[in-house]
Amino acid sequence: MKLLLSALVCGALFGSGLVISDMINPARVLGFLDLTGDWDPAMLVVMGAALIPSFLAYKLKAGLPTPLFDPRFHLPTRKNINGRLVFGAILFGIGWGLIGLCPGPALAALTTGRWDVAVFVLAMVAGFAIYRRTSDTP
């Protein structure tokens, strides 16, 4: 129960940050990606500010044997770059550049009630399901 509650609090905090910083606005994201036009640096500030809690969390992790609400830390173990990773990154970047949303902000943007965001999230969930059914990765 503690794990579920802590995940809910962290998700709500993350979603609130996305809403407050206006990162759920596809136009804001696309403005950041438009380097030759009317470039919007707001996302650079948001990403830079995100480094602070991330840095602090890694420092805190170094002094803890386990997380507070989980029996172990869940950190990536793979160090290699393979074709699947590169293809996934390219696909993610194309989608992000075309639409201006990625999974986290898209879920937070559902709170706006916009139909196009709902369609995006449904397509995203369908993509997750297709990948799960066709992939040998658990």
TrEMBL record:
Protein name according to UniProt: DUF6691 family protein
Keywords tagged on the record: Membrane, Transmembrane, Transmembrane helix
Bilayer-crossing regions: 41-60, 81-101, 113-131
Classification via Pfam families: DUF6691
